[in-house]
Amino acid sequence: MGSTRVRIAIDAMGGDHAPGEIVAGALRAREELGVDILLVGDPQQIEAALPPKTNLGQMEIVTAQEAIAMDEEPLNAVRRKRNASINVAMDLVKQQQADAVFSAGHSGAAMASALLRLGRLPGVDRPAIGTVFPTIVAGKPVLVLDVGANVDCRPKFLEQFAVMGSAYSRYVLGTNEPKVGLLNIGEEDSKGNDAAVRAHQLLRENSQINFIGNAEGRDVLSGRFDVIVCDGFVGNVLLKFAEAVGEVILQILREELPQGLHGQIGSALLKPNLKRIKQRMDHAEHGGALLLGVAGVCLIGHGSSQAPSIFNAIRMAKEAVDNQVLQRIQSQYTLERESG
């Protein structure tokens, strides 16, 4: 690719605040993370979003004439709009002109485009969207997958999610021997529906992961687990609920702490602490979710993503590339086939 710097292709037309917030986050990432940025989309709109007299430097605008709207059926739109920004961005990864891709646009379209253009990693039946949650243990996140790619999952898919999640937790999040849990309605092995019981057995028998049992809802943020697997229906509900709870708590703190003279004084003194609370709880600090299982580093962001989220998503993409997450996952499956 001619450069040793990590090159990130950005779908500049994806998201509620595109391209303005996308461009702002990308500019910050270029400066602070030392990455090359490929902004994909309508050149006129992208250039209009750049600050005056911006020196592109390690940034390039790649033309894409179309974009996929949030209300479009993803697979049909991806196939029909071959020159859509998400497709052009994926093609850059496929052609090895970029190391990773990020989009805050239609998540279904991003997944469909990744599957059609990059394909799945050998040994992976279904890719999964994994996202990082904070826990009550400072500096100890938990990776939850799937959070939306697969509404229905066979037990084998959940086993594969655990393998991929363990590799990501170990090599990107720096967790030694990641503890894996299966999201369920009880701790006992026999709890849950038939799929959960069979998934539990597969996870327990897989020597490539450190499976420690079922995780109940109250365990997700406890810090007891490093990786938690579930189907995409449950995972997406969990994700949206956790985001809402975090926003509610932050809003309550903003409203209640400054009440009265003592509250105003206390709020001023606690400002650094409140900033750290926000950093631990705010989903914007994590940036995006990794699409694990496709043959390329792909991150999917919230449709409402603004510049800080874009920056953090690019940071996550860079970390995944730097830590060779694709190669690590593939080596796990190679070991599994050889041991099997």
From TrEMBL:
Keyword list, A-Z: Acyltransferase, Cytoplasm, Lipid biosynthesis, Lipid metabolism, Phospholipid biosynthesis, Phospholipid metabolism, Transferase
Keyword Lyase: no
Catalytic EC class: transferase
Transmembrane feature ranges: none
EC number, as in UniProt: 2.3.1.274
HAMAP family on file: PlsX
Quaternary context: Homodimer. Probably interacts with PlsY.
Function: Catalyzes the reversible formation of acyl-phosphate (acyl-PO(4)) from acyl-[acyl-carrier-protein] (acyl-ACP). This enzyme utilizes acyl-ACP as fatty acyl donor, but not acyl-CoA.
Protein name: Phosphate acyltransferase
Species assigned in the record: Nostoc paludosum FACHB-159
